[in-house]
Amino acid sequence: xxxxxxxxxxxxxxxxxxxxxxxxxxxxxxxxxxxxxxxxxxxxxxxxxxxxxxxxxxxxxxxxxxxxxxxxxxxxxxxxxxxxxxxxxxxxxxxxxxxxxxxxxxxxxxxxxxxxxxxxxxxxxxxxxxxxxxxxxxxxxxxxxxxxxxxxxxxxxxxxxxxxxxxxxxxxxxxxxxxxxxxxxxxxxxxxxxxxxxxxxxxxxxxxxxxxxxxxxxxxxxxxxxxxxxxxxxxxxxxxxxxxxxxxxxxxxxxxxxxxxxxxxxxxxxxxxxxxxxxxxxxxxxxxxxxxxxxxxxxxxxxxxxxxxxxxxxxxxxxxxxxxxxxxxxxxxxxxxxxxxxxxxxxxxxxxxxxxxxx
Length: 359
Ligand SMILES: *Cc1c(COP(=O)(O)O)cnc(C)c1O
Fold this sequence. Notes:
By secondary structure, this protein is an alpha/beta fold. The chain has helices at residues 45-55, 67-77, 89-101, 117-125, 142-147, 171-180, 205-209, 239-248, 256-267, 269-293, 313-323, 342-358; strands at residues 32-33, 84-87, 107-112, 128-133, 153-159, 186-190, 215-220, 233-236, 304-307, 325-326, 328-330, 334-338. The strands form 3 sheets. The chain has a 7-stranded mixed sheet, with helices on both faces. It comes from Streptomyces pratensis (strain ATCC 33331 / IAF-45CD).
């Protein structure tokens, strides 16, 4: 056997592995998974029915154009079908955007810390990441991000609210930023947690994109709609960008099960958004509880909270796990804790309280 391996692209060297949220452990106390920002509610019966019925035909390829879902989205958001593109989760769509815009020698700007998929998919594209630190308030530093634009910049991610800090950028500052970015640089508004926002000054990306051809909006069914396991997300963008997304899509990437579940979820939106409302209520309860315990917590507009624990991060995550809640540590920085069912949040608050007292 030869020792030589096939030639692989040098860009793959050192690509960090995506760290999935740890599953809840099956032994020990009742375990809750608060590590992946998933929706804790089980599928709605009606959505389940559409999934089972689509599953009965999985010997067939899905509708490649996602016709039913595209029409439903076009109606729901008041955009032409030609401005829509679906993909295998919004991470899949983000990867397609990079494939469409960026390669070796190009630069992609994003805040840091932000969504951990950004460095991975940027490096795979061959482009160079330009990470702009969050402000001391854990918010995107949009002035610094605009200042980081060069002739080589092809794409900028704005994660709003930001994962893992939950912080937002508001309308006026975002508009000011977009006015500064050159028209030929694509700005991607990643709105994975849009439905959890209650701050009226946070703009809806789909309103912002309408008169800005260099803005694309990413949305997902994974979080508020509870379809994380089915892999379906979408972009809203002007025609050249949406067309490029259709070219870069994996053929038949979005299964019929996912397409039908997404349509059923849009039709059950009232009920699903009611669940989001309950989670937002729990978010306030957890936030208030933490503040009362003496923690400094950035105000979150998403379905998680962020505790900057520095070198105590892994300690804290370990204590949480032993108490039955699995959280998401970023070693040396902090812990992101998903808002779950009330019982899970209670366990987390209790652990946070005793940890706080020992600090
Ligand atoms: C969860 C998340 C996504 C969506 O992921 P899917 O691929 O749609 O499951 C996108 N962006 C951010 C910032 C996220 O946290």
